[in-house]
Amino acid sequence: MTQKKKVLLSGIQPSGKLCIGNYIGALKNWVNLQDDYDSIFLIVDLHALTIKQVPSELRNRCMSFLAQYIACGINPEKNTIVIQSHVPEHAELTWVLNTLTYFGELNRMTQFKDKSKNNSSNINTGLFTYPVLMAADILIYQADLVPVGADQKQHLELSRNLAQRFNHNYSDTFPIPEPFIPKFGARIMSLQEPDKKMSKSDENENNFIALLDTPDIIMKKIKRAVTDSNTNIEYNQNRPGLANLLTLHSILTKGTIESSTMYFKGKMYSELKNELGEICVEYLRPIQDEYNKIIKDKGYLNKILKSGTEKARYKARRTLSKVYRKIGLVPFPR
Ligand code: TYM
After folding, report:
1. From ligand 1's centre to the CA of 308, what distance in Å?
2. Are residues 116 and 220 in the same domain?
3. Looking at residue 38, which CATH number applies to its domain?
4. How far apart are CA 322 and CA 314, in angstroms?
5. Ligand 1 atom nearest to CA at 200
């Protein structure tokens, strides 16, 4: 008998241009792990609403993310790709989990603190309860493994706590989801401000490489990347700009930090930047070629969304019915 595969789940907010940080921290690992799990990949549009969006752009971005997931190597036939708002059970489970989440727990979330600092004119309650929606995303599919970058670790901890709390208060319902955080590349840094993480929604586009940036732009952004006033090339955490470029080089060449550092030893920053720029361009070229083919085929993309939603809703409904029954809600009379 074949053993039932474990469930892998992850998602990305369509809140900007998918960037190389998202790729290295998350997407690349989704691609590598997808075949070993029953995998579900979300485009979390409801999460994106916590920051002011232009409606038409948000809509287009969701479809573009779908095409980019596939272009990066997610197999939509074997796995499920779904837009979060197409499965209303996420929002329904969120409400139940809200009633199990303590104010103090959310108040400790460092991402909430950071985001409200950068977004002081719009500190909405969605931004505050955002990690509960994320927990619902994970628990509604009974996920076992969640591949994410390092910045999501605290949110995942909350998901684990909520799963445990629910299981303890009622009865065993949710597996406790394990994070999968890559050893290298879990926190790619901003190109202009290398002491903060690279972010797809950064107002300064020079801070990130988007997966769909043209070769010219990629070269320009890497050449302008902030390093320091030293000249020797070494891997040193106290030289975050240089360390970030070496990290990118080692990951994109499938080498190690040591091999990249050795390779550039005695060379100049400009050589590192030029080579890294070219490697990045070549790395992204097949992804961009594939993307350009898929994005035009609306029929194909819609078909994937329909079958993904069907599969996802079936699973989500099963979990939600179980949850509603366990907490004492009256089942709808048949
Ligand atoms: P988001 O959209 O900010 O980022 C998507 C994924 O990319 C990773 N990431 C990075 N990894 C390395 N270096 C970086 N500079 C970098 N920036 C981002 C993130 O860790 C993430 O894995 N709340 C989530 C989305 C989400 C989710 C979920 C994830 C919603 N529901 C359920 C997993 C499971 C977020 O805002 O990610």
Report:
1. 21
2. no
3. 3.40.50.620
4. 13
5. 17
